[in-house]
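INTERNAL AUDIT FORM
Audit reference: QA-55
Scope: verify that the stored structure record matches its stored sequence.
Auditor: D.O.
Record contents follow.
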Amino acid sequence: MAAINGGIFSDVLDGSPYDDIIQGFGGADTILGHGGNDIIYGFSSTSNGDIFEGGDVLYGDDGADSLFGQNGNDTLYGGWGLDYLDGGSGADYMDGGFSNDTYLVDNPGDVVSEELNDTQNRAGIDTVLSYITYTLDSYGTIENLTLLGAENLNGTGNGANNRMSGNSGNNTFDGGRGADILIGNDGNDTLWGAHWSVTADGGDAIYGGNGDDIAGGSYGNDYIDGSFGNDSLYGDEGNDQLLGGEGNDYIRGGWGWGADNFGNDILNGGAGNDILIGDSGNDNLQGKDGNDNLNGGLGQDYLDGGTGVDIFDFDSISDSPWGGAIDTIANFRWSEGDKIDLSTIDANLTLAGNQAFASSQMSYNSSTGIFTADVIGGADLQIKMVGVQSGFAPSLDVIA
């Protein structure tokens, strides 16, 4: 490996076809790596109390090159190969060229550029490592973003399939279009597959990590894992899978930026006291451990509270109408304190106000497993009960 050093003034330095270490030192240098896997430094230098700033132009050319601009406003070209470009402390221009490149950004004036109109798919998958809030280029030529340090930074994606990873601070990510992967890591993060967008597409994968996170998908079939902390998760459109993990989580299958919020969603509360709301669609709600509240919403839903004191909440007859696509409650345990909550439904439409259900208006057929709530002057509600603990009694186990 050859070592090539410049002086304190402005030099033009040429590398060999092999692996070189080239150091410009002072002055505004032009450095060409040529072939090989080169390590190139622009540098600034001090001589007799004078500081010679960089303002260098570095060319990596072929090979997997590492380019370091150091001080000054530098221009870095990676060329072919898997290049690493770090402009240093100035406002730098960095162009990795073809293949999979990595850029370090630490100045709002830094510009990262990749090849446009690459019809031969030579540009590769590129990554920005950033110490500042960063928005990926609108052309979709930069795919990945990793936030560094401990500051509260934000990241915005583009139309590509982005992978964005947070630091230890409180980060906000907006993936934009595409099938994105968002990872919050530590901190109380806010992660949106496509925030405030009605043109988003793709199924996103979102991981909250540690902290109390807010995460939401958009159009597409999304996977959202809150992991640790007390998280709020929203599926929006599509057939989504939402996992609360540890903590007391709030999970909704629909709700968001779409007009209908349809989708057959899977909601898993995990450990903790969780609130699960299916919204529209035929949803599967699993409370798991803890004292959970489950509301399937519209559609033919399956509700299983798991262990703990669980409440199965029905806001409307249309949530589980007699003669229609009725909901199923699985593994109801009255001995654990499980309840069916019908308190928001008016049991007698012939009277003003919201009337409670009388015991005579509710029945349970242990042979068929059908629970019925009879509304006077209106349609009735029915629920299929499976795996119900023997001794279920509507007069005791229903909040009327």
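Auditor finding: record pair retrieved intact. The chain has one helix and 40 strands.
Action required: none
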